[in-house]
Amino acid sequence: MSLDVQIEYESDIDELIERYSSLSFLKSIQLRADASISWDRESGTTYDLQVIFIGKTGYGKSTTLNSIIGNRVFETNDVSSCTKKLHSAEYKLHSKKPYYFSLCDLPGVGESTEADERYLEWYRDILLKSNCVVYVLRADQRDFTIDEKIFSSLFQNQAEKKKVIIALNYADKVEPINRKYPFQPSEAQLINLRNRVNQVSQVFDIQRGNILFYSAGEQYNMKILINAIRGIIQQQYKLLR
Hints:
Blueprint: E1 5-12, H1 13-19, E2 38-41, E3 44-55, H2 61-69, E4 86-92, E5 99-105, H3 113-128, E6 132-138, H4 145-154, H5 158-161, E7 164-169, H6 187-204, E8 211-213, H7 222-240
Parallel strand pairs: 1-4, 3-5, 3-6, 6-7, 7-8
Antiparallel strand pairs: 2-3, 4-5
């Protein structure tokens, strides 16, 4: 099955660094033309530091990416069972070489058992080729049965899970809901959020350091998410070297 990539946004890495100074390390990374990070496009082959966002439709992947970019470029679309596209925002890392930092939205999982079975192997190939994977859940979600099944199929050992961040979106929807603006969780919410992190760690068999909670809509803990991505990319880059 071929990979169909739709580029939604293109810019220079300086634009993203202006928003998140912690990503300034990307300017000093010396990529190699390595097949493990190569992607074929209409314009030719590129070499990407790839961050993939995955999760069910309605969990806020597109909102999260738009929040990171600072621009509404990712739209939530219904995807038919016969068409799957990888939507991306591309930031050029080098003026003369085809090196990019790429933020990608993988089509929603959990739409149906038939669709998941058909595409899980394809998803797994893409995710294994990526430097960092952000698996988006809802912080106010209680039943993880479908996500647990999908997650265990996509990431089959601890080595693969080391590059995964489980990001619990909608932290502002966790009880007891408060109306503070800008949003800051109450002590009671923080207790529930931390308990949810512990639950997710046990259910998905992933260390607590790779789990965080945030709210894309409320711009809460977005820098924490970016810093987590930074840490995993830096570690992955060391392994690539």
